[in-house]
Amino acid sequence: MGQAHADARAASPGLVTAPAEPERDAEALKALALWAERYSPCVAMDAASPGREGLLIDMTGGAHLFGGEVALLTDMTRRLAEASIPARLATADTAGAAWALARFGRQRRIAPPGKTREALAPLPVPALRLAPEDVRLLTRFGLRTIGDLLALPRAGLARRFRGEAGLTLVRRLDQALGVEPEILEAVRPPPAWRVWRNFLEPVIDAAGVETVLNDLAPSLAEMLERDGQGARRLALTGFRVDGRATTLTVSLSLPSARAGHLAKVLKERGLEHLDLGFGVDAMMLSAEVAEPLNAVQSDLDRGLDGDQALALAGLLDRLGARLGEAAVYHLEGRQSWLPERSQGRRPAGEGAPPPAPEAPGLPERPLLLLDPPEPVTALAGLPDGPPARFTWRRVTHRVVRAEGPERLSAEWWRPARRAKPARTRDYYRVEDGEGRRYWLFREGLYGREDQIEQRDEGGVAEVVSFPPEWWMHGVFA
Amino acid sequence: MFSPAPSNGPDANPVTTPRAGRLGLEEAWGEGVTGRAGAMAFALTRAAQDDPRPVVMAAPAAWLRENGRWFRDGLKGLGLADGRLLLIETRKDGEILWALEEALKSRAVAGAVAAVDAVSLLASRRLDLAARETAAPCLLLRTAAARDISAARRRWAVRSAPSAAHPFDDQAPGAMRLSLALTRSRGEPPGEWLVEWDDETHRFRLAAGLADHGLVPRGRTVAAA
User: Fold this and answer.
1) Would an 8 Å CB–CB cutoff place A477 in contact with chain B?
2) What is the pTM (predicted TM-score) of this model?
3) Cross-chain Cβ contact A331/B38 below 8 Å
4) I need a labelling partner for B39 at 20 to 30 A (CA). Which of A69, A164, A327, B57 fits?
5) Residue A400, SS3?
């Protein structure tokens, strides 16, 4: 550690080296942390000391589920070895002691409850998660093991070092002994509602996952219902035999605790999206977000009763799960006069848009809006009059009836994205000889907006003609 | 299993049949972009009429690129406020038919409309079954390019028609008019109608002909010589 590459090569010419890739290390550790959730919902990554990364798993009150601490470590060792992930494991009363035992412990890596002090005493000082220079200082004082430190009076210990170092030493010691609490920051907030299945034989295909899901959903629904909660966000996690986890999440538009619905929404999301690898040997279904399950009230304004609202929410969940949540939407108004900016999408899962204030009597608007507008060559009787004939998509139309103009000013307060400035639009509603109705506009006003100033490379300004242009913006029936 | 479509009297007009008479899958073929917009207006109002529940309209992204996107201000003119219209945009045609069937089976919608090009006989039969089972109008908007067989019970051809003069402005186009032709139907004779949009009642009504000779008996216009 800390040796220059050239020095290392000089000492051992046959050395195989690889560049450090901290990002990929962190990624792999994260993947392993998610897999480790099969043992406990609270798994923290310890990436503070590079080269000594590890996982801290809070097993408080959970070891007996795996047959005790010895059986737990044996199980973990076996599974990690099968996935060919090298690992050193330890359990202790505190995270600090487990950290020390895993890295520096010789043979017995299980510190029995209440025996932390004895287990730690023979370990060397670096096991306390100290900075290298502090370790060097301690060795210079002849303090080589934690036992040496424990023998010293506590008050003097902090004072012997300058500045922060003394405090860090005492804090680390206290954390290892459990005098000072240490809070683990879980990689994912542990879900309060989760159900589990372990299998003897790994599940390798979507059909197998579906069977498991049908088995898990009623248990989760029962659990949620008991607490008066409904799931808003579901996660189905598979723990793979190769030490990775794969997760499928889906959101629901109304809290639900109906087993059939929970399973159906996940199935629509596509169980084949779970990356099963060589198989999963445990699965977890959890409600990541839950909300109180209130009795559904009738929506009297819209004439929908509770069953209707539930049926609609169920439909939206299924559509959203399969097509994507953005694919199903309502239109809602936006603050703009320009047609293309006057509306936006609102995902249907967020509910119907609130009633918008009624716009003051707009002239008739097209049903379909071409966005972006398409160029049209038009011939007008008068420069600023409606078009007499126009060509759009290679078809020429003769205008029989026309209404307009309806003038919409450009939004000058918006920064222009195009090189040319936005101009005033004059909209016309026109009808051709066969009754086809279109919405056209002329961009630019004659006499006022038909010239622009262009600067060439030398910075000399030149006024160029920029005649008004015709565009097709929408179609009436 | 199903009750057959109620037999309308001899004077009944398929354009203005009440909701109960619209059982089963229907198709509307629009000619050109304006015809397709007209077919959409006809289908949406037909699906939404006499029912406060939302209406589903689904279209593939390619259809929306070619014919234009749904425009809120225009659709409001059809009496479909923001919350009434549930829009679905998909990448593939197959997803549309699935979404439509789900929507009908949920019984949470007043009716369903979709723009699709290729429909297999089997898929259309499934939709027809779902539509009849749930007594909801279901219309497919199709383009003239693919005239294939489907299980639709009625097939409409929709064209825009020249409007009557605007009441206050001779130069301006009047209310939207569509020419509707029933080209195929089970148990009904084909016919052709000229309908006009009524802004006040938010529905199509039969338009008086050019010569203004009133409505032809039995709701069918005689093709003018």
Assistant:
1) yes
2) 0.72
3) no
4) A327
5) strand
